[in-house]
Structures are given as structure tokens and as C-alpha cells.
Specification:
The protein is mostly beta strands and about 120 residues long. Helix content is about 5%, strand content about 30%. The strands form 3 sheets. A 4-stranded antiparallel beta sheet has the order 2-1-7-8, with no helix packed on it. The chain has a 3-stranded mixed beta sheet with strand order 3-9-6. The longest helix has 7 residues. The chain is globular.
Length: about 120
């Protein structure tokens, strides 16, 4: 577990995710990323996540994994070399990681097991 306790309140049960803030801050815009930033439950702890639509695949940066999941490299699956393109240039995937995510919803949580390309 990471030592940073800022937003690491344990979610020992999936119902704890229902208490997370799921609505964007009033008056914020999509450009500053606050409109799509939510708190989810991953590995029994709260973590910030940015959700966007229209992406070809789900991606996560090594820096994010280093900060939130110190032993993430043990869970990395190899992948064929592939380059992803963004507006700022090319990105190279080093592997795939699968994390169970609980998305909070007031009528019941949504449990997902997405695959993330690690950049």
C-alpha cells in the first residue's frame, strides 16, 4: 500500500464506494480535467481517475502506478510492441495491467476489470 494517506481511505466493502463524490465541481470545465475526475475504489483504497470518452484504449502512466501501486510491475503482462499516437507525439506501450475498479453510483456500484496500456 502506498504511504500517502491523502485520499487512501480504505474501502473495505464495495458499498463504501457509494459515498465517494461522483459529480463534477460546479463551474469547472472539461479543459481543466475536473469535470471527468472521479474517485474510484482500486485494491481496497480510494484513487483519483480521469474518465474520457472516445479513446481507442485505456492508458495509464508509469508515474501514476509508481505513486499509487508500488508493486505494479509484478502485475504487468507483456504485449507486442505498439506505438500510440497523441496530439503531443508518439507513446510506447511497455505492457498491460489489469485492475479491478469499482465505479461509485448512487443506485449501485459498477465493477469493471479494464486492461490498461502502461506508457
Amino acid at each position: 500500500m502506498p504511504q500517502d494517506n491523502e485520499n487512501k481511505n480504505l474501502c473495505k466493502h464495495k458499498q463504501h464506494a457509494q459515498t465517494f463524490l461522483v459529480t463534477p465541481t460546479k463551474g469547472t470545465s472539461y479543459i481543466n480535467w475536473t469535470a471527468t475526475k472521479i474517485t474510484v475504489c482500486i485494491d481496497n483504497a480510494q484513487h483519483p481517475l480521469i474518465i474520457g470518452s472516445g479513446a481507442h484504449c485505456s492508458i495509464v502512466a508509469r508515474n501514476y502506478l509508481d505513486h499509487h501501486f508500488p508493486n505494479w510491475e509484478k502485475q504487468l503482462f507483456p504485449t507486442k510492441a505498439k506505438n500510440l499516437k497523441s496530439a503531443s507525439g508518439n507513446m510506447k506501450s511497455i505492457g498491460i495491467i489489469i485492475k479491478e475498479i469499482i465505479l461509485p453510483h448512487r443506485k449501485g456500484n459498477i465493477r469493471l476489470n479494464p486492461q490498461f496500456d502502461v506508457l
